[in-house]
Structures are given as structure tokens and as C-alpha cells.
């Protein structure tokens, strides 16, 4: 169910493309299936813990960008942080849209702008920690400018045809140490999956 509402949230935000009919090609925000983003790598990742600042909502006004603006100057307050230059945007706890409430026509989710830690002994004010369980992930690599395209492609095109299903649990954006060093930096999107 979480997977379904994630798709609804993302599609309502940006919309994406066509129907697959006899001989026609599916199009997703300008990408045909033949021009799609690379096939993901399937990886096993151990559990890890993150600390950061949370936003809950639909991100209709770009609130997540504002969250990062608040979090980045405060990262050095996090004790026991693994300062390897990697940051994460972790998403979880999706709720479906409510057609009876005009303020909730798009579902909501939690988003944690965060970094990894070795322990949670002292979490700074206005921050929280999340445990990310050991999981199998489909990992998509792409330039930041294709973030929404990648979400839509991964969940609406690749996953239903992949031989995998959404496994539940948090998914996350992975921002490598060199992120931001060039105009359209590379990043990764991790989706928890299991075989059908």
C-alpha cells in the first residue's frame, strides 16, 4: 500500500507519460523506455543509523529544499557523526491523499535530511534519529536534475516489470561526498525491494 501511495504522490506532483499500446513507446517526462535511465544495481546494504531534521508534508512548495538549507549549517552539532561527506534524504511513513479534504489532495510523507552516526547518545535539539534496517535495494544513479524523472521511472516503469516488488521500509537519496562540486551532480536513489 505504501508503494501505491508513493507513486500517487510523485505522479500528482510532476505527471508522467503515455500508455503502452501495440507498437507505441511509453514516455515518462520526455524519456522513452529505450532512452530510460540506467538499469539499477541490486545491492545488499547493512543497517545503519542517521540523525537529521525532519519535514512532513507533500513538498508542494519545495519545503524539502528549505529543510536542507536549515540542516546543513547544523550538521557539525551531531555528535558521533560519520563525517565522510555523505548525506542522505530518507523517506518513509506515507499517508494516502484525502479527496474529501482540499488541503490533502496529495499524500504526505516524512523526509529526513540527515547523516550517518555511530551512536545516538546525544541528538541535537530539533533533530531525530532513524534506524535504517538491513535491506536489499535497487539503486539508481543519475544527475540531480533528473530526480523526479528517476522516481517516476523507477516506481512506475522499472519496478512493475523488474521481477522485484517494493519491500517496505525507508527508501533514501544518497548524496556522495563530491555532491555539489559540479552543476548537475550525480546522486543515487535506493528503493527497498525483494524478489516476486
Gyration radius over CA: 17 Å
Overall mean pLDDT: 82
- CATH homologous superfamily designation: Regulatory factor, effector binding domain
The low-confidence runs, each spanning 5 or more residues with pLDDT under 50, are 1-31
In the CATH scheme, the class would be Alpha Beta
Range of strand content? 35-45%
| Helix and strand element order | HEEEEHEEEEHEEE
Query: Structural class, from secondary structure content?
Result: alpha+beta
CATH topology-level name: Multidrug-efflux Transporter 1 Regulator Bmrr, Chain A
Number of helices: 3
Largest sheet: 9 strands, antiparallel
What CATH architecture label applies?
Answer: Alpha-Beta Barrel
Annotation, overall tally of beta strands: 11
The percent range for helix content is 10-25%
Our measurement of the CA-to-CA distance between the termini, rounded to an integer number of angstroms, reads 16 Å
Q: What coarse outline follows from CA principal-axis ratios?
A: globular
Q: Tell me the count of domains.
A: 1
Describe this structure in words.
This protein is α+β, with helices and mostly antiparallel strands and 196 residues long. The chain has a single domain, classed as Regulatory factor, effector binding domain (Multidrug-efflux Transporter 1 Regulator Bmrr, Chain A). The chain has three helices and eleven strands, in the order H-E-E-E-E-H-E-E-E-E-H-E-E-E. Strands 3, 4, 5, 6, 7, 8, 9, 10 and 11 form a nine-stranded antiparallel beta sheet that branches. A two-stranded antiparallel sheet has the order 1-2. Helix 1 packs across helix 3. Mean pLDDT is 82; it is low at 1-31.
